[in-house]
Structures are given as C-alpha cells and as structure tokens.
Amino acid sequence: MLKLEKRHSLASSTAESQPWWVPWPDDKLLDLPMCHLEVSLASPFLSSLIHQLYSELESNHLKFRPHFWLSNEWFTPDGVPGIAIPFYLSHPRLMKLELAQMLEVEGGTNEWCMRILRHEAGHAIENAYRTRRLRSRQQIFGRSSEPYPTYYRPRPYSRSFVRHLDVWYAQSHPDEDFAETFAVWLTPGATWADRYKGWPVIRKLQYMDELMRGLSDVAPAVTSKETVDPLDTMKKTLREHYERKRSHYRIERTSFFDPDLKRLFSDESGPISAARFLNRFRREVRRKVAGWTGEYQYTIDLVLEDMIQRCRQLNLRLQGPEEQAKLDFTILLTVHTMNYLRSGRHKVAV
Question: Is 222 exposed, middle or buried (CB count within 10 Å of its CB: 0-12, 13-18, 19+)?
Fold first, then answer.
C-alpha cells in the first residue's frame, strides 16, 4: 500500500553492463546492503513512464514537474514537490526478487505504475502550490491536519469518492481523497464527467478541474529538490528490508472461519485432505481474490495459510466435486478478506 511521510551508472539491457549482483541467487542477493545496489531512474521502464507523466501534465498546461528519486517504497514527503519510487522498479532482477518476497510487484506494470505515479503527483502538486491552505480545498476535501488513521473502515459502495487505487484508498484521509481525485482528473481519456455523473463525488472532480485550470501556466511556489530516505543512504540489507515489510503487512491471525470450513469440507473420510486440495490451487485463488478485493497478495496468503492450517488441524477432507469446492472456497476466501477490510481489522499503511 502507499505510505505518506515525510548511483552510479544504470545497468542497461546488455549483459556486459548489468550490475554484478544480477546472476546472484536470492539468498545471496538478500544479504546485499540496499545502498550498494547501484541502480538509477534511467531504466527503460521508469524513464518512459516518468516521461509519460510529464506529458500528461504538459497537456493540461501545468508547469509543475515533480522530481523523483529511488527509495524503499512509494511516498511523497510532506512539503516536498517530489516523489520517491521503490528501488525494485529500477531493474528486472529486483522486480523478480520483490515478487518472490511479496508475491507481487506493486507498480510492476505500465498501467499500475502510471496509476500510482498520478496519485503521488497529486500529493506533490499540493506541496508545490500549497493548495492545502486554500479554504475551498478544505471545504471540499477536509483538512490535512486531520490525523492519519492506523485503521480505517472502507465503504465499498460509497459514491462520495473516486475509485482509482485499490482498497478504496480515497476514503482513508482528506489528502488521499485529493490525490485520488487528481489522479482520475489527470488520466487521459478517463471521461470522469460521464463515469461519475450523478455521483456526489462529481463536485470534487469539478472543483479539481477548476483548481487545475486556475494553475494553468503558473509557476510552482515551492521548487525544492529535496529527497527523503534516498536509496544510496540505506545501509540495511535487502533481507532486513523484506523482513520489516512482511511484518508490516501481517494481519491478526484468527480461526473465526472454522464454521465455514466445516460446512465446505468434512471430517469424514474423503479422497483427499482439504489442506492438500487447497495447496493445489493456492496461487490461482490468491490472485483471483486479490483482483476482486484489491488486497495485497501477501495478506491474502496469510489468511489462506491460516485456513489451510485449520483444515489440517481439524482433519478436514474434500467430499464433493473438486470444481464446485474450488469455486465455493474462492468465494469463502473473498468474503473473509472483505470482512477484514470492512471491520477495521485490516491495517492500511497510510
């Protein structure tokens, strides 16, 4: 998820210029200090998308251009008109490691990365023009001084917020609401006027359109190139980084889904244990539920692991047709994931 808080030559696609650690196995690479990665923003993947963001800003007659740097995650520091990009997006080998450690690569596709870049650009442009001070902005979106929640309870069917990033992120805080609304407004061909017609959120989009038109060809008030937690200052190893990251996304372990598991499976004799059956399509169901809920795959896998362990402890076995059981379990996992999201037990990094 997105967290808000306050070097060498790039390895090209040719084998000769690749960083020395590219052929290393994961276990060896994980012991490398992050500051020794020697990667940059000049990778074909990142440079093309940054250029695309600049083009979108230019097409809307905005003079603002955020600056970028590599860090440990996505964020835009308070008061800084720039954006930190996670280091793993700078090289395919690091994307592969991120996938192995976290089960997915946040921002790892062109579309996904652009969604995040537009969102973070919303924060950066607020810093650049100090729009949080505007009374009209406060009336429409709320005050930035409101404390960020440790937990929040999303309202999936609310029409008072745009839908851009996953987990109904606009609902978490007024600043996220602004950034998400800006991202929808900036997206080329988004046709937001038609998509959100009749929704209360259209007022926010119309305000955003008016605000950005007022900033047309206006130079930013804040032009600092400050960076926060740049990659080349991070001395912790990749192993330490991922241990902390996985711990951050870990959720409370519970066994409240036992009754549902007992209804789906049986403690009587059957052709295959429920635990073995679930392990067969673990990756498939995890990806499907992630697509439906917008939840991080690592978190879903923890819930799934609890379910598999409970099936094993309860000696549950498959009784009916496999395809039907597969569908029923996918729905069951989705329901319990949504329960976490809606009940407030799900922790969102903000």
Answer: middle
**For 213-229, what is the mean pLDDT?**
97
The pLDDT of residue 292 is above 90: no
Q: Shortest CA distance to 308 belongs to which of 271, 328, 331, 278?
A: 278
Its pTM surpasses 0.90: no
Q: What is the DSSP letter of 266?
A: B
- Please write the tens of the pLDDT for every residue from 310-331: 898 889 999 888 999 999 999 8
Task: For 169-178, write each residue's pLDDT tens digit.
Answer: 899 899 999 9
Phi, psi of 72 (to 5 degrees): -90, -15
Residue 343: how many other CB atoms lie within 10 Å: 10
Which of 52, 53, 40, 33 has the alpha carbon at shortest distance from 12? 40
Pairing relationship of beta strands 67-71 and 82-86 according to DSSP bridges: parallel
DSSP 241: H
3-class SS of residue 83:
strand
H-helix or E-strand spanning residue 289: helix 282-293
Our CA angle for 199, 201, 203, nearest 5°, is 105
Res 255: pLDDT: 55
The label of the residue with tokens 């692991």 reads 305
Residue 273 is inside which H or E element, if any? strand 272-273
Size (the chain), residues = 350
CA dihedral sign of residues 159, 165, 171, 177 = negative
Residue corresponding to tokens 């988004």? 190
Give the DSSP letter string of 165-221. Answer: SSTTGGGS-HHHHHHHHHHHHHSTT--HHHHTTTSTTHHHHHHHHHHHHHTTTPPPS
Position with higher pLDDT, 304 vs 248: 304
CA trace torsion 232, 236, 242, 243 (10° rounding) = -160
